[in-house]
Amino acid sequence: MSTSEHAAAPPSALGDNDDCNAIALRGRLSGEVEFREIPSGSTVAVWRLVVRRTTRDLNSSVTVDTIDCESFSKQVMRSAGRWSDGDRVEVEGALRRRFWQTPAGARSRYVVDVRAARKGAVRRET
């Protein structure tokens, strides 16, 4: 199965030995999209998506997750440049762990590396 087939295949369709790193999220944009230049000279779009939890942990009052997203895709960056705080956004991509050095040592965090995005909710066919 190719990488593109993994992204489209539901987890139940994958074989026992197939790996899959595919993320699909729909939520509300928290703040404005930022465009940052990284040391290589490339530009990356960075934003946070607030996603309601579908189930609630009985030991927690938390009802949403705030998820860091980024994209190097020029097409996604063009779309993201038109978004405003509070817009409903849908993204597809993969979970990535980013590493960097600080004076206190190595740090890391997880982000969604967005390959496709659009403003608004997707209409599901019935």
For CATH, the homologous superfamily is named as Nucleic acid-binding proteins
How many beta strands in the DSSP annotation? 5
CATH class: Mainly Beta
Give unreliable regions as ranges.
1-6, 122-126
Query: What sequence of helices (H) and strands (E) makes up the elements?
Result: HEEEHEE
- Work out the strand percent: over 45%
Tally of structural domains:
1
Class from helix and strand fractions: mainly beta
CATH fold-type name: OB fold (Dihydrolipoamide Acetyltransferase, E2P)
Description of the structure:
The protein has helices at 3-8, 74-80; strands at residues 23-37, 43-52, 64-71, 88-102, 105-119. The chain contains 2 helices and 5 strands, in the order H-E-E-E-H-E-E. It is mostly beta strands. The protein has a single domain, classed as Beta Barrel (OB fold (Dihydrolipoamide Acetyltransferase, E2P)). The chain is 10% helix and 50% strand.
